[in-house]
Amino acid sequence: MKKNFLLFLFLGLFAEIDAQEINWISFEEAISQNKKTPKQFLIDVYTDWCGYCKKMDRNTYAFAPIASYINENFYAVKLNAEQKQEIHYLENTFRFVAQGRRGYHEFASALLQGKMSYPSTVFLSKEETLLTTIPGYLNTTLMEQLLVYFGEYKYENQEWTAFQKEYKSNW
């Protein structure tokens, strides 16, 4: 019994060491860092009450190869679509708008082009232009494909459907 406990303790510690987390930063911090070291942006638009947002955090973003790839190739931004804190960008101030029981943040609405769906994943170029917005839960397989498509600039020369047909997972 004691040996089993020690074995589980050791394996638990080893698993913790192997875990990788995404280095989430604020949008303003990503903009600041992008001026020094240009990278693309991955923005996770979520709400505190969204069950699929939490599932994506637990399953997709917690998957070590995905976390590692995001940290290497993107500025990772977590944006609460209902946050009260203002965001200052391009001489604009984006604010929370009280509406109904919850409300929304103007910046989230701008990124999602008014289609407020959670979770949504937004990709921005190094030049801070919108590449795409993908609404809904993304499993690890689809997220891997999207990360490689945008992270390796495949979108510049290849249509998404062709890329998806040819893509072979490395993870």
What is the compact description of this entry?
This protein has about 170 residues and is α+β, with helices and mostly antiparallel strands.
Q: Could you outline the blueprint of secondary structure elements for this entry?
A:
Elements: H1 2-18, H2 27-36, E1 40-46, H3 51-59, H4 64-73, E2 74-80, E3 87-89, E4 92-94, E5 96-97, E6 104-105, H5 106-111, E7 120-124, E8 130-135, H6 140-151, H7 160-166
Helix pairs in contact: 4-6
| CATH structural fold name | Glutaredoxin
Return the CATH class. Answer: Alpha Beta
Strand content: 15-25%
Strand order of the largest sheet: 2-1-7-8
N-to-C span? 36 Å
Average of pLDDT:
91
Sum up the structure in keywords:
Glutaredoxin; 171 residues; alpha+beta; four-stranded mixed sheet; 7 helices; 42% helix; globular; single chain
Describe the structure.
The chain has a four-stranded mixed β-sheet. The protein has a two-stranded antiparallel sheet with strand order 3-4. The protein has one domain (19-166): Glutaredoxin (3-Layer(aba) Sandwich). The protein is globular and about 45 Å long. Residues 4-17 have low confidence and may be disordered. By secondary structure, the chain is of the alpha+beta class. It has helices spanning 2-18, 27-36, 51-59, 64-73, 106-111, 140-151, 160-166; strands spanning 40-46, 74-80, 87-89, 92-94, 96-97, 104-105, 120-124, 130-135. It has seven helices and eight strands, in the order ααβααβββββαββαα.
